[in-house]
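Field guide to reading this record: the first block holds the primary sequence, the second block holds the structure written as discrete tokens, and the final block holds curator observations. Each block starts with its own label. This record concerns Response regulator transcription factor, catalogued under organism Streptomyces macrolidinus.

BLOCK 1 — SEQUENCE
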Amino acid sequence: MFRTGVRAEIGRTEETGVEVVGEAPDVDQAVSVITASRPEVVLLDVHLPGGGGVEVLRRCAPLMSDAEQPVRFLALSVSDAAEDVIGVIRGGARGYVTKTITGSDLVNSIFRVQEGDAVFSPRLAGFVLDAFASTDAPPVDEDLDRLTQREREVLRLIARGYAYKEIAKQLFISVKTVESHVSAVLRKLQLSNRHELTRWATARRLV
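BLOCK 2 — STRUCTURE
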């Protein structure tokens, strides 16, 4: 539904100047569509099913570095969490805007990225500058990097005290899927229960 809304908002080519050449619901299809159509700009959902926007960026790295026809990426997300922003910018995205952006501002951001500019939502610009101001890149949390984007979402909600049913409703997934994600998170982080998980997340300021 959200994808349909974005397409309707920016895809009126005569008004916006933007031509939508493809769309995809998950990482594998996104990589296939991007590789086949070679768009000038990809509007990338940070939490795209199948590995997230970072995985799309990793698999499309050769297209980004093409000197003659580079594919540029603009990340779009409901999240303004540090690990999400830094993750996609490290991956090669040229900008990061949140889903509260207006249609006209989104179109403007797409054209700015197409021209080679870096574009960020106002709240994120200062944060990104601070994060990359020094020669020392933000530290990589190897434990956190083991988790998929969806597992991180579930982790954050568990740590905030949400019940499985509430998480399922918020993420539009089944309770059984939530349970599977929690089990995977506990296994990957070598934790025993949600109380340990909450302490782990709080210590890393993920809550």
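BLOCK 3 — OBSERVATIONS
The first strand starts at residue 41 and ends at 45.
The longest helix spans residues 175-189.
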